[in-house]
Amino acid sequence: MQSPTLSSGPIEVERKFVPGPQVEDELLRLGAKLQNELTFRDSYYDTPDCRLTLGDVWLRRREDSWELKYPPQRGTRGLNGASTQYLELSCEADITRRVSEELNIPCPHSLDLLQLQEFASFVTRRRRFEFPPRNGSKHKVVVDLDTADFDFSVGEVEVLVKTQEEVKSALMEVEEICKQLGVLSDSPVPGKMSTFLKINRADHYKQLLEAHVL
Ligand SMILES: Cc1ncc(C[n+]2csc(CCOP(=O)(O)OP(=O)(O)OP(=O)(O)O)c2C)c(N)n1
Ligand SMILES: [Mg+2]
Question: How far, in whole angstroms, is CA 123 from its chain's centroid?
């Protein structure tokens, strides 16, 4: 059982794609607007035996803030076909509770006390585009074009929803934008983490593939 005191964050419904050279022109043609350009460092943490990531739980520091992503339903994976769905937490106390629950240990006063180890760190340059809500939907669709400092680029179409009931329609909206952009792939497209681990941490990468997390 998840702790009743844990305040749940939004659910991120997302689909990755391989960005071609025309993708920005296509986005603008379809009505998206460039919102901003950001550069940030993500550092990811786990136990030495990778218990968080093997459970599909992703803890990172993005610049000065802690963030946690994990599947909305216990015992399932966040990967759903070629799309993903993850709950996001950004409050450090909630993150500490959820991480200690995952590790089956008493909740400490601070995340630092868990003595987790950094296993990946990279800088991303992100160009963020936004579609206003379309066709009567209340959701805004965001498209991120990311380039990581290990010379890797990936695109993501994303919708944030508040409840599990909204996930199905969000998945359809994300898929529709991918179709219109001409980037709908049947199989999951590798992201920055999967590519980083494949290059830098082959053993961790292999364990995640074998556990069907990646
Ligand atoms: C296609 C795919 N993506 C992610 C996962 C699981 N996973 C691996 S690393 C990871 C955490 C990083 O998530 P991701 O969206 O890939 O990174 P980023 O775009 O920088 O974060 P955002 O700004 O969107 O919050 C997850 C959930 C998976 N199994 N398959
Ligand atoms: Mg993402």
Answer: 15
What is the per-residue pLDDT for 76?
82
**What's this model's pTM, rounded to 2 decimal places?**
0.93
In whole angstroms, give the CA distance from residue 2 to residue 97. Answer: 10
The pLDDT tens digits of the residues spanning 149-208 come to 999 999 999 999 999 999 999 999 999 999 999 999 999 999 999 999 999 999 999 999
* 59, 68 Cβ separation under 8 angstroms: yes
Nearest to 140 by CA among 117, 126, 157: 157
Spatial separation of the C-alpha atoms in residues 131 and 65, rounded to whole Å: 26
Tell me the CA–centroid distance for residue 169 and ligand 2, in Å. Answer: 19
User: What residue segments make up the domains of the chain, in order of their start?
Assistant: 11-211
Ligand 1 pocket test target in 56, 80, 84 with most atoms within 8 Å of CB: 84
What is the signed CA dihedral for 116, 117, 119, 122, rounded to 10 degrees? 90
CATH superfamily ID and name for 11-211: Hypothetical Protein Pfu-838710-001 (2.40.320.10)
**ipTM exceeding 0.85, yes/no:** yes
Q: How far apart are alpha carbons 13 and 21 in whole angstroms? A: 25
What is the residue with the minimal CA distance to atom 29 of ligand 1?
214
Say what the pLDDT of residue 209 is.
96
